[in-house]
Design goal:
Structural class: alpha/beta
Bound molecules: zinc ion
Helix content: 25-40%
Radius of gyration: 20 Å
Strand content: 15-25%
Strand order of the largest sheet: 3-2-1-4-8
Length: about 325
């Protein structure tokens, strides 16, 4: 069977869902399956991945020539090992590619979720036509992917492009990676919620207190965005500050990689101009014009299929991983 007539099992292993699609080589999804990710992690998650793939292959009624899987990192795509998956308990140094290869007797490709989102957006989404692309997902954390001259950056151990841990405030809040002032601690969803809470606790009046039913812990970034749209100053300033720090980080990335597009995905980017406006203003006020005048900063286009599309692009690009 050649690559062009092969069917491929695409797997997106997320912290809450395991999604599998059987695709033909043109990228048509023939079958889709979704299961909850077992909260206990460990072997249960490995078994659930196997089960979901088996079910999808069964429903598709076709054998597959390959499996391409997207998993949270850090991971080593060349060795096919998930080193640590933040949202999957008891996953340390899991040889996922070897496990699935043994189970299904086909080649297995493995990639990091944010890196493959970059590839997915380049092939099928907002980055089409670009050869130098930065992708950032701004959600519970901040993940990143870098494509430079059509090459997805992996690094010596698979650790490259952890853009969320770019420090934009040397003495800023401690990050769970050990560093300080990582952009993830200042512009992710939980960071936005935390900073809004801190402003309210410092005595600033805000609609958020009432919108959260008096329980400040119920504030999340979606609620902060809603309050900002209603004209709340604390909420608007919180987004401005998050956008500022994200813009500082993106300025650093422009200097490092000179991309022609920066694609921003993840739940927090649904805030739209509340986030994009201060990001763009910050980049344009800090980076030389030559870096940003031919570089767009745009929302991601693929939505929840970004992982599956990234897995497909990994397979089709023959990135030679694992
Ligand atoms: Zn960090």
């Amino acid at each position: 069977m050649t690559a062009t007539d092969a069917h491929i099992a695409l797997v997106d292993l997320g912290g809450t869902q395991i999604r599998v699609a059987i695709s033909d080589a043109e990228g048509n999804f023939i079958t889709r399956v979704a299961h909850s990710t077992p909260p206990e992690g460990g072997q249960a998650t490995i078994d659930a991945v196997k089960r979901a793939i088996r079910q999808a292959i069964g429903e598709g009624g076709r054998s597959v020539a390959s499996i391409a899987i997207v998993a949270p990192g850090p991971l080593d795509p060349r060795k096919g090992i998930v080193i640590h998956a933040p949202n999957v308990p008891k996953w340390r140094n899991i040889p996922l590619s070897a496990i699935l290869r043994e189970e299904f007797s086909v080649p297995v490709l493995l990639g990091n979720d944010a890196s493959l989102a970059a590839l997915g957006e380049q092939w099928y989404g907002a980055g089409q036509g670009h050869h130098d692309l930065i992708y950032l997902t701004v959600s519970t954390g901040i993940g990143g992917g870098v494509i430079s001259d059509d090459v997805l950056l992996i690094g010596a151990h698979g650790y490259a492009a952890e853009l969320g841990h770019n420090s934009v405030w040397a003495d800023g809040p401690r990050c769970n990676c050990g560093n300080r002032g990582c952009v993830e601690t200042l512009a992710s969803g939980p960071a936005i919620a935390r900073q809004a809470r801190e402003a309210i606790r410092a005595g600033r009046p805000s609609l958020l207190t009432e919108m959260a039913g008096g329980d400040l812990e119920a504030i999340d970034s979606r609620l902060v965005a809603e309050a900002a749209r209603r004209g709340d100053t604390v909420a608007a300033n919180t987004f401005k500050r998050a956008g500022y720090f994200l813009g500082v980080a993106i300025t650093n990335f422009l200097y490092a990689f000179d991309p022609t597009v920066v694609v921003l995905g993840g739940g927090v980017t649904k805030a739209g101009p509340l986030l994009f406006d201060p990001v763009t203003a910050t980049v344009q006020s800090r980076a030389p014009r030559a870096y940003w005048e031919h570089c767009e900063i745009v929302p991601a286009a693929l939505g929840e299929d970004v992982g599956l599309r990234g897995a497909l692009a990994l397979y089709l690009s023959g990135a030679g991983l694992s």
